[in-house]
Amino acid sequence: MPAEKSIYDPNPAISQNAYISSFEEYQKFYQESLDNPAEFWSRVAKQFHWETPADPEKFLKYNFNISKGPISIKWMEGASTNLCYNLLDRNVRNGLGDQIAYYWEGNHPDDYSRGLTYRKLLEEVCRFANVLKDHGIRKGDRVSIYMPMILELPIAMLACARIGAVHSIVFAGFSPDSLAERMFDCKAKLLITADGAWRGEKPLYLKEMGHSVKKCIVVSHLKRVTPCPLDHVEEEIPWTDDRDYWWHEEMEDKEPACYPEWMDAEDPLFMLYTSGSTGKPKGVLHTTAGYLLYAATTFKIVFDYKPGDIYWCTADVGWITGHTYVVYGPLANGATSVIFEGTPFFPGNDRYWSVIDKYKVTQFYTAPTAIRALMKFGEGPVLKHNLSGLKVLGSVGEPINPEAWLWYYKYIGKEQCSIVDTFWQTETGGHVITPLPGATPMKPGSASSPFFGVKPTLLDECGIEIKGEGEGYLVFSQPWPGNDAPLYNNHETFRGHLLLQVPQASTALARVSHEVWTAFHCDFKRARRDADGYLWITGRVDDMLNVSGHLMSTAEVESVLTEHPRVAESAVVSRPHPVKGECLYCFITPNENEVFDQKLISDLKKMVRERIGPFAMPDVIQNAPGLPKTRSGKIMRRVLRKIAVNDRNVGDTSTLADEQIVEQLFANRPVEA
Ligand code: WT7
């Protein structure tokens, strides 16, 4: 390991050619973006096609002051466009028709490779848009998508965007129950799915329809016309005539052209469920114009993407990272990307490095949890491959610990690449705090500085702004184009949630509610600004869990656990985990006269897996004859977090209704924990 320096300058070879080549240049543009956002973003908008141009007077209208009316943000009101047109037709017209939009790398290295040019992608999207139209899908209808990482996934998304249907993707790692809940919530008219996916050596069946769906289009991926080394799946999948349709049969006779639906700037583009503070997932809505501007600009600048570069983001399209940085951002820039179906460990632990070598990847974007998992195998698997094409290495999903940062920097980037530790979330649409490759001197573990248009503000417990150095609640005091639509995010409801959930923040919020939009509605953040002005995300103040970059709420898991007939009550906390970042530690109070046994533990694990998904699988389930509650009945989670790590410094417990319970819970820790 190299000795940890506190700051790493960007490689001059990167700075020289970068869009933003010095920190001074970044600061100049940044200031402009805050002083005159309308002017700044209207320059960005010029590269895109607007069927109805924006009125410069109305480029940005917003109100953050509740006393003056409802909170609202409107970008480019009155303008109209179509995302799919801008991503595909515009690029084909600009001469990129024969350029590869996506390379597809299957789970098995010997699977057939597929590349789709921009022209071919446009044709496929139009054909599928016609399929959707034939099934009665119209502008504004919601379409759910539950698919593996195959090319039909972006094709389905873009076909929705082309006809103005709102896609709602559910990550294929979620259980059928989770899918059903989300489909019901958004009143989806149709589901697009596949027979299954490949994960390493085993097929994963997706089409086990316990849920009610009116119509379903199914990609035949496990059983393929084209042979594949693992193509031995003979099992019949569940099928209902007049409801289920094969993708390839539907596509057969469709025209490869479809006129785009012109959408208003603030018309919905997609929704995506994320974990709210309650047990129920929350549908975040992103709209048309602002999202296009922000996805396109962050992609181009943060990854310093230049024509000829090959970009690879390992995130599943089912998460916001995949929406913005596998689909919308790259295609808006006419980029060439890799889409990978498999895992980093199959057929060997060098798969990521072999894919980077195979496609000569220049920008690689992954999660700290993957880096930590791969670090374990040392440098050997890395040295088997030529990674010299790499220029920018991205990190996303959780704070990257300095050890993982340094490993990434030294062994993957060979100390020549810039690392961009991109902080953002589903609601922000794109990166909000991030270094820029040619411009920002890097500090391992710091997300560094705000992107253009983003104005982070730190507040102390009394709601007073902390200027300069200090730590406090992170809020945003100006809108940027990637902001989610307040329409579905009723501001007052969120403030209500926050106040309940984060009592420490209540004073702060009460003071500032009329001035500051807290973008972190539910997943409220704290951050520290150091002496150099760098921002460090220090943690959450609420009850959220982040397992391998998958965000979920404690309530979501608890509601599944307490459904078990033998369980009276449960409390879930996160415990640090060397690879996953955090893991789930669950406290279970069985019903009167019920025993806590191995069967209950395995039942509960199975339930969580089935109801939420494999990634939510608890690491520890502990018997808790009682939970540490305050006199008002609130579970003191900070005490449970201490018990989970066996740390006796639990702090003040004098407000607990029964202090004895803490000792009892320490005594009850299972041996394997
Ligand atoms: C939460 C948002 C945004 C893409 C993936 C997840 C955590 C994400 C970082 C980072 C520190 C990070 C935060 C955030 N997070 N990136 N670079 N440094 N924390 O989207 O599911 O909406 O989760 O992920 O906790 O609030 P999401």
From TrEMBL:
<comment type="similarity">
    <text>Belongs to the ATP-dependent AMP-binding enzyme family.</text>
</comment>
<dbReference type="InterPro" id="IPR045851">
    <property type="entry name" value="AMP-bd_C_sf"/>
</dbReference>
<dbReference type="Pfam" id="PF13193">
    <property type="entry name" value="AMP-binding_C"/>
</dbReference>
<dbReference type="InterPro" id="IPR025110">
    <property type="entry name" value="AMP-bd_C"/>
</dbReference>
<keyword id="KW-0067">ATP-binding</keyword>
<dbReference type="GO" id="GO:0045494">
    <property type="term" value="P:photoreceptor cell maintenance"/>
</dbReference>
<dbReference type="InterPro" id="IPR011904">
    <property type="entry name" value="Ac_CoA_lig"/>
</dbReference>
<protein>
    <recommendedName>
        <fullName>Acetyl-coenzyme A synthetase</fullName>
        <ecNumber>6.2.1.1</ecNumber>
    </recommendedName>
</protein>
<dbReference type="InterPro" id="IPR020845">
    <property type="entry name" value="AMP-binding_CS"/>
</dbReference>
<dbReference type="InterPro" id="IPR032387">
    <property type="entry name" value="ACAS_N"/>
</dbReference>
<dbReference type="InterPro" id="IPR042099">
    <property type="entry name" value="ANL_N_sf"/>
</dbReference>
<dbReference type="Pfam" id="PF00501">
    <property type="entry name" value="AMP-binding"/>
</dbReference>
<keyword id="KW-0436">Ligase</keyword>
<dbReference type="InterPro" id="IPR000873">
    <property type="entry name" value="AMP-dep_synth/lig_dom"/>
</dbReference>
<dbReference type="GO" id="GO:0003987">
    <property type="term" value="F:acetate-CoA ligase activity"/>
</dbReference>
<dbReference type="GO" id="GO:0016208">
    <property type="term" value="F:AMP binding"/>
</dbReference>
<feature type="domain" description="AMP-dependent synthetase/ligase">
    <location>
        <begin position="97"/>
        <end position="480"/>
    </location>
</feature>
<dbReference type="GO" id="GO:0019427">
    <property type="term" value="P:acetyl-CoA biosynthetic process from acetate"/>
</dbReference>
<feature type="domain" description="Acetyl-coenzyme A synthetase N-terminal">
    <location>
        <begin position="26"/>
        <end position="86"/>
    </location>
</feature>
<feature type="domain" description="AMP-binding enzyme C-terminal">
    <location>
        <begin position="556"/>
        <end position="634"/>
    </location>
</feature>
<dbReference type="Pfam" id="PF16177">
    <property type="entry name" value="ACAS_N"/>
</dbReference>
<dbReference type="GO" id="GO:0005524">
    <property type="term" value="F:ATP binding"/>
</dbReference>
<keyword id="KW-0547">Nucleotide-binding</keyword>
<dbReference type="GO" id="GO:0048149">
    <property type="term" value="P:behavioral response to ethanol"/>
</dbReference>
